[in-house]
Design goal:
It is built from four helices and five strands; from the N terminus they run E-H-E-E-H-E-H-E-H. The protein has 177 residues and is α/β, with parallel strands linked by helices.
């Protein structure tokens, strides 16, 4: 599917994710359509029963329910909230896992390959869910964030975690065009 938009991926804690356990605040590297000094908010499944925040110049919505292959049951209405800011963006949650199914054909003992497939398939699943819940409107967005939560399950091997993240990034870059 070829999409015509500038696509940027934000990874605010990539190094922390590969180390898993290093929890140091890092600034998000904003690019593209977010003006310097803009203030935004992110919401996801924990805000399902709450009023959505007001007065922000961009909104970031969690597609997943905090973990890969889960869904945010309020995503549709939260996406409408973000769209009303004029600059909606999305994020997906990642975690470590293994999958023989995916874009790569993996040997049974090749956990790096399987971790890559898991990350790729995680992003694919989130993208399909977002598209189905927004009638394809989310396909035209220029920004997706990758959320690497240390509370999610990660490997003790930083390389394995990197494979998951790289798989997700590769999928998101592929859908960009």
């Amino acid at each position: 599917m070829a999409l015509r938009f500038r696509f940027s991926i934000f990874v605010t804690a990539l190094l922390a994710a590969t180390a898993v356990g290093a929890v140091a605040p890092t600034a998000a590297l904003a690019g593209g359509s977010i003006a310097s000094g803009s203030v935004g908010a992110d919401i996801s499944w924990p805000q399902c029963d709450s009023a959505y925040p007001e007065g922000y110049s961009f909104g970031i919505v969690g597609v997943t329910g905090g973990r890969p292959f889960s869904t945010n049951d309020c995503f549709g209405s939260e996406f409408q909230w973000a769209a009303a800011t004029g600059n909606p963006q999305l994020y997906i949650n990642l975690a470590y896992g293994l999958s023989l199914d995916g874009p790569l054909i993996c040997a049974a003992d090749d956990t790096g390959c399987q971790a890559y497939n898991y990350g790729y398939d995680s992003a694919l699943s989130a993208h399909r869910y977002a598209s189905s819940q927004t009638g394809g409107a989310s396909d035209r967005l220029g920004s997706w964030w990758v959320d690497v939560e240390t509370e999610n399950s990660w490997s003790d091997d930083p390389d394995q975690n990197s494979y998951v993240i790289q798989g997700a990034l590769d999928y998101l870059q592929r859908i960009a065009g």
